[in-house]
Design brief:
single chain, 406 residues, alpha/beta, TIM Barrel, 4-stranded mixed sheet, 4-stranded parallel sheet, 17 helices, 10 strands, 44% helix, globular, disordered C terminus
Length: 406
Amino acid sequence: MSNPNHDPTFLALASPPVRTILASCLEGRDLTQAQAATLFRAQGPDLLAIAATADILRQQQVGERVTFVQTRNINFTNICYTDCTFCAFGVPRQHPQAYAMSVEEVVQRAVEARDWGCTEVCMQGGLNPLLGGDIYVRLVRAIKQAVPELHIHAFSPFEIQYASQVQRRPVRDILLELKEAGLGSIPGTAAEILVPEVRQVLTANKLSVQAWVEIIRTAHEIGLPSTATIMYGHIDGPDHWAAHLALIRDIQRDTRGFTEFVPLGFIYQNTRLYASGRARPGPTGRESLLMHAVARLMLGRDIPNIQVSWVKLGLPMAQMLLQAGANDLGGTLHNESISRMAGATYGEYTPPAEFERVILDMGRVPAERDTLYRILHQGPHHFDPARPATMPGGATGTALREEART
């Protein structure tokens, strides 16, 4: 991308309103909610100018590194009573494909993850009344006893609320107990769109905007960091996205607890929300580019890590977004299930060597990180650019793919 300091024509192709907004961003001023909504509606040359501006700010804020983490997903149960219309993962307990892993099975998977080189396990599941409200702390304690070196990134605000309600204990007590047991961070999922009228259509049974915010703020206050997410491309639009980003920025400026921002495109294929005719078929490429670029413009000074979800968008599109404001590829995602059940077609595992190959192809610097963005390896570590044909498909990767098909 061009540098405006050396290319006076950088913004010349943009329309006057967009040019003014982007120049303000390059001068270090906050992007307002109204300005973000304007940018989210951009097309044509404006789109290219927004992407280029986001790439410049990415260079200034985080440099040329593209990070990733080795993680295994453990979706320990798909039994869920909430029946969210946008989800194809959760099923009732009478469903023929319903399952619930035992604590021992979860621990075994965590041990395997460590043996494969993972530094993190990410756990989320359906809200399963059969498991009891203490299932979350039991899982954390068991994993930490078996593999204390693993970082446990687990349990969305919805799961935290559920544990609080079932056990009739304050959210703060639930979070403190989980942290003491060894929980390292929580995913900021279940956010969807933090606008009440949109959430009412997505699901009437899920936690409110206020509850999500309160749980996230409480987690941050007690020292549990979290991600921040948005699910876009269904019944939402530019004004909703801008409001969501503004709220995330406000929380971050108060708590400093978000490690990254993760846009999650709606995977529509197997969902009732799409089948009912109420939702569009996921985000377009233009919308995905704008989501990542505007996130960089609006959040980058406060949340410097903008992640692209390769499992939802595919690696070729992920490459493009890494040149439009994003700087992180997320996790290797051994055994990812939730996106796959909704209809994602890009696989459930990508070897670290493939991440490095894709990053090097852009002229950027690959870096393996841990959950909290501490760098473990920088530069090619799993992939040998001099011998590309020897890049392992990976015995581990092959085994994981076979397991996922069963």
